[in-house]
Fold this protein.
Amino acid sequence: MAVPKRKTSKARRDKRRSAVWKLSAPALSRCSHCGELVPPHKVCKNCGYYKGVEVLAKKDA
């Protein structure tokens, strides 16, 4: 069975552990109709448009 020859320092240990948990920011693009930030390939929740075509009709409140 393998046994470590030297103690792993706290800095080395923490560097290894921190690299795994980094999260990337979600990809967002601008809506072509209203300019709202939306995830790509999704209908805009603000105006209901997708690729310049109205997909969801917004009812007036």
Observations:
- Residues 27-61 form one domain.
- DSSP finds one helix and four strands in the chain.
